[in-house]
Amino acid sequence: MKYLVFLLICFKVIADGGLTVVSVGDAEVVKESLLVEKIFSEGVFTPNEVEQSENYINIVRNDFKFYQNYFNVLPRRISQTSFDNVRFTNYKTKETNFLVRFKIIRSATQTTLSYKLWNIAAEQELISKSIPYDANDRAAIHAVSDEIYRAIVGKPSIFKDKIVFVSDYKMPDGKKELFMMDFDGANPKRLTWHNGVVLSPAVSHDGSKIVYSLIDESVKGAKKNVNLMLYDVATKKTSILSKRQGINSGAIFTNNGDEIILTLSHQGNAELYRMNLNTRAITRLTKSYAPDVDPSLSADGSILTFLSGRPGKPMIYTMDPGGLEKNVKRISYVGKYNATPRFHPSASEIVFSSWLDNRFDLFKVGSDGQNLVRLTKDFGSNEDPEYSKDGQFIIFTSLRVLSQSKATQSVYIMDTWGKILGPLTSNFGKCTSGRWLKSL
Q1: What's the distance, Cα to Cα, between the start and end of the chain in Å?
Q2: Whole-angstrom distance, CA of residue 330 vs CA of residue 308
Q3: Residue-wise pLDDT tens digits, 255-276
Q4: Which of 29, 73, 386, 389 is the most exposed place for a label (fewest CB within 10 A)?
Q5: pLDDT at 190 over 70
Q6: Are residues 334 and 356 in contact, defined by beta-carbon separation less than 8 angstroms?
Q7: H/E element holding 124?
Q8: Residue 229, SS3?
Q9: Architecture of the domain delimited by 2-19+163-437
Q10: How far, in Å, CA of 79 to CA of 171, rounded?
């Protein structure tokens, strides 16, 4: 909300476990039926270890439930055959398209996890592998889920991706820091320790760096500047990218990762610039009487969308980032004002939030300004949307008023058709600005 106030001033008005997905109803599409059977074991295991292994495999089941429009995850059952042998006719009659089996094996020296994937119709084994087993290694099982998904679909999933977000969890009033969690909301971890206010993060395309704005409040009584910071995911080190007077904010990475596009106000008005990360040289992209903020770049780098106050209120525009004020075009007309436009990976559409009916709701529109679709209604106040790397999901921030004195603000996930799957954060303070991070 502080970032919203910051934007409005600029315009002058000019948990440990992840989300468990429960399917409700069926979309009218042909789905692949996936059966992940009850786990096999070989060797001596305690009842608690067997239960842990089954919970481990439940992560795989839950991973695929996120793709509700593509997969029907069948109820688990105990196989009537050995781990290696499949009676295909039994599964064909049960309309199973793909079968997954897991087996934990304990020897005198190690414990391993073996897994297999079969295409039932083709009667073909697609995967047969073994990996070291650790019941607490969620990253490893997400990687297995991704391998299975790729074998079936032929494309990468979101299972190994992370989500970066901002929260005030366990902090003094007004302070906010950067956090990161698994795609399903598990394993939230704090990344920064500024004792200030972190705003508007963005992640490089390779997932190696995060850029964000910081209102540094560590020095009491000092005039607060909005500085631009860079976080290295591998080294966990932060550095200052820009501390020009005024606003250094809303940055995004270009596709090659060597440049960013950001908002600067050091010359008075908030305008968009391109900055070379090696030389720190800047090139101006917009020149208007009104503030220009919140850039987002198409995957091929040919179109830039941004928020501008040129119509007297914040609305969405597009332009060619190859020159100053090149081919600027307004594409949004809905609501009192708009915020945070973000491109779909295909660049075919843009998701954004709009203030309508005394709340923010999410919309998407074609990059040419056509085919406006409303995604949320009567579900709190929703903003800060961003598409997943595969274009199948949108994460967003939802503020839900529980009473006159209590409200929750969490990061949620929906599919691109507007079906809300649920919250990714819960009881973790006020969470905002969710951003996808590709797994390194």
Answers
A1: 31
A2: 9
A3: 988 999 999 999 989 999 999 9
A4: 29
A5: yes
A6: yes
A7: strand 124-132
A8: strand
A9: 6 Propeller (2.120)
A10: 50
Residue 283 to residues 86, 260, 261, 262, 309: CA-CA distances in angstroms?
A: 62, 11, 9, 10, 21
Place of tokens 């009033």: 173
Using DSSP's 3-state secondary structure scheme, residue 368 falls into coil
Report phi then psi at 139, rounded to 5.
Answer: -60, -40
CA distance 249 to 293: 8
pLDDT digits (tens, 9 = 90+) for 11-34: 443 345 677 665 444 445 578 999
Query: Domain 32-153 falls in which CATH fold?
Result: Rossmann fold (3.40.50)
Burial class (CB in 10 A: 0-12, 13-18, 19+), 119: middle
Q: Which amino acid is at 123?
A: E
Q: What is the C-alpha to C-alpha distance for residues 430 and 409, in angstroms, rounded to an integer? A: 5
Compute the residue count for the chain: 440
Q: What are phi and psi of 146, to 5 degrees?
A: -65, -40
Amino acid identity, position 81: T
* Strand order across the beta sheet in which 259-264 lies: 248-253, 259-264, 271-276, 282-284
pLDDT at 21: 63
Residue 156: burial class (beta carbons within 10 Å; 0-12, 13-18, 19+): middle
Q: Does the structure show a pLDDT above 60 at 425? A: yes
Q: Is the distance from CB of 131 to CB of 116 less than 8 angstroms?
A: no
CA distances from 265 to 284, 297, 345 (A): 11, 20, 29
